[in-house]
Known about the structure:
The protein is of the alpha+beta class. The protein folds into two domains: 2-90; 109-341, 2-Layer Sandwich (BirA Bifunctional Protein, domain 2), CATH 3.30.930. Helices cover 42% and strands 20% of the residues. The strands form two sheets. The protein has a seven-stranded mixed sheet with strand order 1-5-6-10-9-8-7, sandwiched between helices. The chain has a three-stranded antiparallel sheet with strand order 2-4-3. Helix 1 (2-18) packs parallel to helix 4 and helix 2 (22-33) runs antiparallel to helix 4 (53-91). It binds ligand 2U9. Ligand 2U9 binds next to helix 8, strand 6, strand 9 and strand 10. The site of ligand 2U9 has 23 residues, from helix 8, strand 6, strand 9 and strand 10.
Amino acid sequence: MQEQLKAIQQEALSKVEEVNDLKELQAIKVAYLGKKGSLTQVLRGMGKLSPEERPVVGEIANQVREAITTAIEEKNTILENAALEKQLQAESIDVTLPGRPVKVGGPHLLTKVIEEIEDLFIGMGYEVREGPEVETDYYNFEALNLPKDHPARDMQDSFYITNELLLRTHTSPVQARTMKEYNGEKGFKMICPGKVYRRDTDDATHSHQFTQIEGLYVDKDVKMSDLKGVLNVFAKRMFGEDRKIRLRPSFFPFTEPSVEMDISCKVCDGHGCNVCKGTGWIEILGAGMVHPNVLEMGGYDPNVYSGFAFGMGPERIAMLKYGVNDIRQFYLNDSRFLKQFHQA
Ligand code: 2U9
């Protein structure tokens, strides 16, 4: 049995020497020292030994167990350190390496222009209102003097959801809702920015979804000159103190009289160029005095109250101000296009 014990020790130590994997090392431990281990097996035979032999063999058996246990623990430490070192290597960060560029975003050009216009009117005492994009036919059309069979409805080809619900074609319904809310009790000034939808084929100047900012000022004795004054301030603040404005007669079902406002062309300073198609003027927005029918439907007595309204397309203003020649660029989310305006 002593030879057996020596052989087991030899065999175990050489296996421990060769092994390079913690799991395999664990398996060796079980194979030799475990309940069914070969050393344990031999020791079960000690009962058959003579009383003289037992302490000798017992001592050798303990030495063998000690030697195998120690060798396994030392090898375990070596393999664990090697595994840690390997992990540290794998996880080591070369701090001298350049960092990954963190792409910093920025406000979308349209957001910037809309906020610029909002700040301008907030500065003139206007409140900013928002409203539902899924609108009723009443507030999108009827309340704006566009009864069911009115031809102008076709001008605003619409995405109907049901006979009574559609994607709003302008933000005017929000003004109509606000009038209803104040219900002729008091005057107010508001602007309403937001997305609107028209069944249009997208091209460089048209998009089925675009934004609008409309405004409304209702009070006693609001005059056309008030409108002209506000539009003049708007034009100069948005496009430069040197710009001149011009109001041309126009028509909208919800305003009477109606005008379109032009600003003098920056490129040719009004002398005529291809940007202003030789006119020297660039059309910016539409406006007018609120139609008495619209005041009435809003709960305002047109003999007591009057008002002016205006409407503009922020995409158009951004295209003019930043030289963008295709409205679709605003929606393609092409970072090469968008990041140009981060510092603008
Ligand atoms: C109420 C009363 C009157 C809003 C107005 C315009 C003129 C206008 C166009 C601008 C660019 C539409 O997107 S666009 O093509 N809008 O020119 N909008 S007056 O008039 C109102 C609105 C609400 C209760």
